């Protein structure tokens, strides 16, 4: 059964539909009316100027017939909503699965399958969204072997490093990534605006001693910090350090809190990059609080409780959510062999768009006689 109940001033409408309940503002329903007078049938873009609708707009009548909600507004407009669609429209992306070292997933995908099959590509992108990373096997052991799969999702993000760049030890390294040094868990390129969304790390050879990759779920770390040290958590959501990178040809700077919240007050992004962080000259008492909070967070993200250790084999690729996961590596010795990775970036918007469009396409029945 479905029940609709206008508020006393008729400017809100409570809807009980099966096992779902919601309260909707009349003005919100009016500006999202799914009719051709309000929304363009092809693009879904709004045709009326929402800011010109009367602020005192209310609902004259609301009726439900066969799963359709029929509304008559005080400005004379009539429209109807499919109730299932109305509630589906309130749904956000599927939830992320937070993890620690003990329950860490091992999401896997096959390069050729994802390249040739939309269902396999969709599964890979859903794993990436849910778990923050996915390990792809069967990547051609060539310099730009991952490029064809990137092309299936979105454009390669070019930076001052170029497109797909080498990650290996070199003489006179201009970045610590290019040394044999171990790297603490970190966010890549927090000095860019926007920060690259996804890191693609392709292994060509990994015979060196050491050089294991490490992953930490930064959102899990934020959640644990909120539970165990709420004052530290609050501090890291408020203080906004900057991050800066400079070389002979590049000068990049951006800023943001180590733990960023969304509109609901929930952690949505983490930043940590000891090498490039620049904390503002706050009053000493505020800096003391920040430094203690940062240390508490650091102890979490470097502890074995949250650290997943991986060693990629040649032909494997690790795709990581750079807004969520913190990644690092152990030091390596070239006496044991060569460690040669290739790395590229793909932005979040194109990745999220591809995932959602594939999901919608695969959920839509194909006409008979047409291949799926």
UniProtKB/TrEMBL annotation:
Respond yes or no to whether keyword Metal-binding is given for this record.
yes
Report the cofactors.
L-ascorbate; Fe(2+)
Q: Which reaction does it catalyse?
A: N(6),N(6),N(6)-trimethyl-L-lysine + 2-oxoglutarate + O2 = (3S)-3-hydroxy-N(6),N(6),N(6)-trimethyl-L-lysine + succinate + CO2
Q: Under which EC number(s) is this enzyme classified?
A: 1.14.11.8
What the entry lists under InterPro entries is as follows: AlphaKG_dependent_hydroxylases (IPR050411), GBBH-like_N (IPR010376), GBBH-like_N_sf (IPR038492), TauD-like_sf (IPR042098), TauD/TfdA-like (IPR003819)
Keywords carried by this UniProt record: Dioxygenase, Iron, Metal-binding, Oxidoreductase
What GO MF terms are annotated?
dioxygenase activity
Q: What family does the entry list?
A: Belongs to the gamma-BBH/TMLD family.
- Name under which the protein is recorded: trimethyllysine dioxygenase
Source organism of this protein record:
Vreelandella gomseomensis
